[in-house]
Amino acid sequence: MLRDIKKHKTQFISIFLMAFLGVFVFTGVGGEALGLEANVNQFYEDTNLADGWIYSPYLNDLFVEQVYLLGATTQMERQVVVDSEAVIKNEPDVTLHFVENNTISKFYLVEGEPLDINDSNGVWLDKSFADANGFKVGDNISFEFEGYKINKVIRGVGYSPEYVYHASTYSVLPDFKKIGFAYLSYEAFPSDTVPYNVLNVKFKGSPDTFNEILDYRLDGYYITFLERSQHSSVSLFSDQISLHKMMADVFPMVFIAVSMLILLTTMTRIITHQRNQIGILKANGFKNSTIIWHYLSYGFWLVLIGSVLGLILGPMILPKFIYSIMDSMFILPSWNYAWSMNFIYMAVLMVLMSVVVSYFSVKVISDEKPSQSIKPRAPKVSSTGIIERLKIWRKLSFNVRWNYRDAKRNKFRALMTIIGVLGCVALLTCAFGLHDSVNDLMVWEFNKTSHYETEMIIDDGASQSSIDEVASDVNGDEIMKDVIEIESNSTKKAGNLLVLDGTDLVTPTDSDMNEIKIKDDEISISQKMADMLDVKVGDTIKWHMMDSNKWIESKIDRIHADPNSQGLIMSKEKLQDLDLNYTPTTIVTNEPVDKNYSAIKSFSSMEYRMEGWQNMILAAWVLIYVLIIFASFLSVVVLYNLGLLSFIEIEREIATLKVLGFKTDTLRRLLLTQNLWFSTIGFVLGIPLGYYILKTMWASAGDSYYVVPKISLTNFLLTAIITFSLSIIVNLMFSRKIKKLDMVESLKNGE
Amino acid sequence: MMSTIIEFKNVVKEYKSGNHILKAMDDVNFSIDEGEFVVILGPSGAGKSTLLNLLGGLDSVTSGQIIVNNQNVESFDDNQLTEYRAKNVGFIFQFYNLIPNLTALENVELMKDIVDVDIDGLEVLDSVGLKGHANQFPAQLSGGEQQRVSIARAVAKKPTMLLCDEPTGALDSKTGVLILNLLQDMSNNQNTTVVIVTHNSILAEAADKVIRIKNGQIEDIVVNENPKKVVDLEW
User: Fold this and answer.
1) Within 10 A of B228 (CB to CB), how many other CB atoms are there?
2) Residue A689 burial (CB count, 10 A)
3) Are residues A486 and A628 in the same domain?
4) What confidence score (pLDDT) does residue A750 get?
5) Count of H helices and E strands in chain A?
6) Per the domain annotation, does A576 fall within a domain?
7) Residue B137: which of A381, A406, A664 has the nearest Cβ?
8) pLDDT digits (tens, 9 = 90+) for A142-158
9) Rounded to whole angstroms, how far apart are CA atoms B125 and A751?
10) Is residue A552 domain-shared with residue A459, that is, in the same domain?
């Protein structure tokens, strides 16, 4: 057996590689996405993250009792959440949480003593902040807020489930030198009455129902109810998860399918080449079962070792790599890959399939009489088809005729080669397509839709006149962005409302990124939202502002497309027609701004927003490159292997032609032609398949992103270049084999 | 006067296997005239195939000279050898080695791709009695028919010589005789030089020249003044 392995070294290596790669990518990409979800869910569970937050300045005992009496909550806890400034040189912003008993959204201790609710002197500090600013357990730290100044001893450092992603108004990429959070006991609050302003609640049932119950009794007594999925840290991380899950969904399935298919083909072919030897073994009195066992053990060990290695290394290496990119952006106590039984099923399937397929390949041969199998298999009889009867056939070159007939006589081999190429092309197209679409998202958002230089967020309390003043000072336009809920066909979706007041700095577009005009009396819904609600132009939807109960019925006049904001767009006039208040939330301008206005909470430049966006998707970006690399690697293995298989099968014919006086170059071209034919067919079929996979992937990418999967010209060309250059490189490798081909040896026996 | 077309001068061929050197061809000298029907005889392992491979340009000598058509074959590089095979040598193999993808006719006309000779495939097939099978594939033909196609393929390009390696080895004796007869006719009627390697000594009586080899050396060379017709031999 070892001798056989040596003889078929390359093929055995590729069997091993395909088993390994298939399982490695499947478990690696899958383990990464599942790990993200598992880690964050574990964290949320360990710290008992709130199901919702009720914001109100009136969170006295009476209010709490009222909420309690609703009977909808299972657990409640009040906090005072205030923005403070730490008294050190760079004046970082630290959000202080004075907690009532630390039972919901608990502080997750990494170092020091656990949070003690009776300790009025201690503070439990954000570990990332502490590390960035050189604070240690036992140090003193002072904070200033609302006229108070407090000085506390750091009792512990750790994490919080509300700060997995610490958004700040200044920066998309968290800078822990400048921002942080801290937990303290309510006892530490520097006044006798503790002005609780957030009520953390846990409840059973849906957040919508809870919100309705809450409104029924307490409407007007609180400002906002925020459900868990709307919390900026939670929603941002879940967007990440769905982006990663999308890549872990179809792609690895196709990947493992292609590798399995080619692996099985290779095994079948190797065994078929052993036909003669099987015949000899049988003729010498070996039992069928002995022979079958012998050949089964062939692939079994290789596939087993490959799969098991993939199973072990996949979830270890890939997630670790991706997580190392994410862990500066997102703060989780642990970054571990997750396991799924599917991984094991897949590996077992891989091994089982290889055993079953080898079994049947050997069985077919060993069922023959040994007298038959020691002789070469009778050549398949060809027939002349329509093409061959045409006059033109005789005019075709030998090359074309030979290859046409060869493909016709070896349909299985031809089919497998085409499928192999097709699969690889689909994977490459899809991986490049992901790259293109993510890139497109950015171009679309920053160049086509929101093509303004500076975005200024208006302070909640700013007066209209002060807003107008700023707008005219920076030559800017006011727009209104709000959160709404839309209902149609009894499906409810949260979305965004964008109200435009004649600005040319925000341009609604269609799915091809072309500008569209939304008239003053029209309401436009985004394509993705329309798809999710299953509505079209002319249909009627119901919607309301998140902070109001007033449902409005509107007819859809138009559909626009937006890469990452799904919802409605209308004009100021239309909004006012519907009896709603126009309250600008944002000023946009093409001028750079570096001045602080009292009416403006924060502002950001385009460069800054783009950079933030890029950082946000960095991990997904890297994951895409990983997919591209593996798709290319698989293509190399698959194409080389398939090339080798066909070369072995036609070796004798090639040798004959060489003896007859055909030049090595002519023979090389003969093989190249065949390679190119199959590659071309595979390529032509693979592109649409890749597009289809890409489309399926984006459809599962969560509610916020709308991507029109496109196969860009670059993508197309890159895939073509990779596929065809691999074809040619593989062919060049074989031309060396043709040169070295031992003509005498190849001609000696009939086999 | 017939001219010498093939000449072996002090040909030595050694194979190395590890430290061991095997002399497959040890100082071999002979010559073959144009149009001769030559039979090379010898037991297995005597060096028959080596001789044929050297003559056919499939292998190169260790020392000595092989002169074919006044060319020094032993000095050729790979490309020249390929051209030499294409132009000078018509191979006929024990297992026919037809291209299974191509019909009988296409197998013959295949030669157009390597030599600048106008070939009428049907005419050549007719000369081996297979005109009616022109559009059949090798797998549809019997062994004898396949060998005849292979002869047609070999003669189509009008080579300097036909090299036949046990051409009847895979055929029954009756069919074998037909094949050998065809080869002898080609030699007699078309002045084609035919070199047949075989271990069947009966064929010796039909040859113009018999070269016996043993242990890599020439045992003897016999020239028959009156060779018998193949069909008249006692098989």
Assistant:
1) 15
2) 18
3) no
4) 47
5) 23, 20
6) yes
7) A381
8) 999 988 999 999 999 99
9) 27
10) yes
Residue B69 — very low, low, confident or very high, per pLDDT cuts 50/70/90? confident
Q: A126 and A186, same structural domain?
A: yes
What is the C-alpha to C-alpha distance for residues A2 and A5, in angstroms, rounded to an integer?
5
Instruction: Write the Ramachandran bin of B17: left for phi over 0, alpha for psi from -120 to 50, otherwise beta.
Output: beta
**Rounded Cα distance, B61 and A71, in Å:** 102
Q: Check pLDDT > 70 for residue A384.
A: no
Same domain, A456 and A593: yes
Is A649 part of the contact surface with chain B (CB cutoff 8 Å)? no
Summarised one tens digit per residue, pLDDT across range A193-218 is 899 999 999 998 888 888 888 888 88
Asked if the model's pLDDT at residue B48 lies above 60, the reply is yes
Contact A115, A109 (CB under 8 A): yes
Residue A197: partners with Cβ closer than 8 Å, 6 or more residues away:
A55, A56, A57, A59, A79, A80, A81, A82
At A42, the pLDDT band (50, 70, 90 cuts) reads very high
For residues A69 and A124, state if they share a domain. yes
Q: Closest Cα partner for A525 from A485, A578, A568, A486?
A: A568
**Average pLDDT value for chain A:** 86
Q: Could you tell me the residue range of the domain that residue A265 belongs to? A: 1-49+251-365
pLDDT tens per residue, range B198-231: 888 888 888 889 999 988 888 888 888 888 887 7
CA distance to partner chain A, nearest, from residue B189 (Å): 24
Is A721 within the bounds of a domain? yes
Same domain, A441 and A557: no
Out of A329-338, A401-410, A455-464, A545-554, give the one with best mean pLDDT: A329-338
A740 — contact with chain B (CB < 8 Å)? no
Better-scored residue on pLDDT, A380 or A742: A742
Task: Give the model's pLDDT for residue A265.
Answer: 85
Q: Among B52, B54, B99, B122, pick the best mutation site for testing chain A contact (most A Cβ within 10 A).
A: B99
Say yes or no: A148 and A90 in one domain: yes
Whole-angstrom Cα distance, residue A110 to residue A129? 13
In whole angstroms, give the CA distance from residue A586 to residue A480. Answer: 6
Residues of A within 8 A of B100 (CB-CB) are 379-380, 382, 409, 653
pLDDT band, very low/low/confident/very high, at A588 (cuts 50, 70, 90):
very high
Contact status of A377 with chain B (Cβ, < 8 Å)? no
**Beta-ladder partners of A500:** A479, A571
* Torsion, Cα of A624, A625, A627, A630 (10° steps): 180
A750 shares contact with chain B (CB less than 8 Å)? yes
Separation of alpha carbons A256 and B147, rounded Å: 48
- Give residue A121's pLDDT: 93
> What is the rounded end-to-end Cα distance, in angstroms, of chain A?
21
A296 part of a folded domain: yes
Q: What is the ipTM of this complex?
A: 0.83
**Across residues A605-613, what is the average pLDDT?**
82
Single residue among A339, A365, A391 that ends a domain in this structure: A365
For residues A727 and A707, what is the distance between their CA atoms, to the nearest angstrom?
Answer: 32
Position A392 in a domain = no
Mean pLDDT within B182-210: 85
Evaluated on CA atoms B213, B219, B220, B221, the torsion sign reads positive
Fold of B34-63+72-232: Rossmann fold (3.40.50)
At position A735, the amino acid (one-letter code) is S
Q: What is the pTM of this model?
A: 0.79
pLDDT for A4 beyond 80: no
Same domain, A14 and A64: no
Query: What's the structural domain count of chain A?
Result: 4
Give yes or no for B85 touching A (CB within 8 A): yes
**B137 and A401: CB-CB below 8 Å?**
no
Residues in B closer than 8 angstroms to A652, CB to CB, are: 97
Burial class (CB in 10 A: 0-12, 13-18, 19+), B107: buried
Using a CB–CB cutoff of 8 Å, tell me whether A396 touches chain B. no
